[in-house]
Amino acid sequence: MLWPHCKVADRRRERLLGIMLQKKLREPLLIPFEREGRKANAIHSFFCLVPFDAVFLNSAGRVVDIRKSIPPFQPLIVPAKPAAAVLETPAGECKRVKMGDKLQFKR
């Protein structure tokens, strides 16, 4: 188990806000997108107050891109391959995740 707790952004407002304005990330945040894609599912780090890692997942839950230690106020982070979700974690926490890994989440 990589993370014992993970918050899921189920509501539109949660997905829009993501981790913005948080002074510390206590747990990863899974943000599902409306449909799989690349440019439409780009993220940014405007108003993110701390660096974070982003793990992009396809619709099968496979890791398709990993971005480590994204600094605050980066304008555009586009996944390398189509993604259906992104997992935003505290910086440095995705070091055990590799491209192609399948991640599962329990509710």
Q: How would the blueprint of this fold be written?
A:
Elements (H helix, E strand, L loop, with lengths): L6 E2 L3 H6 L11 E9 L14 E6 L5 E8 L12 E8 L17
Q: Main attributes?
A:
globular, Jelly Rolls, mainly beta, 1 helix, five-stranded mixed β-sheet, 107 residues
The count of strands amounts to 5
Q: Tell me, rounded to a whole number, the average pLDDT.
A: 90
- CATH fold name, please? Jelly Rolls
Structural class: mainly beta
Description:
- The structure is a single chain.
- The chain has 107 residues and is mainly β.
- It has a single domain, classed as Jelly Rolls (Sandwich), CATH 2.60.120.
- It contains one helix and five strands, in the order βαββββ.
- It has a five-stranded mixed β-sheet with strand order 1-2-5-3-4, with no helix packed on it.
- β3 and β4 form a beta hairpin.
- The longest helix is centred in the first third of the chain and has 6 residues.
- The protein is globular, with a radius of gyration of 12 Å.
- The mean pLDDT is 90.
Summarize the structure.
The protein is mainly beta and 107 residues long. It has one helix spanning 12-17, and strands at residues 7-8, 29-37, 52-57, 63-70, 83-90.
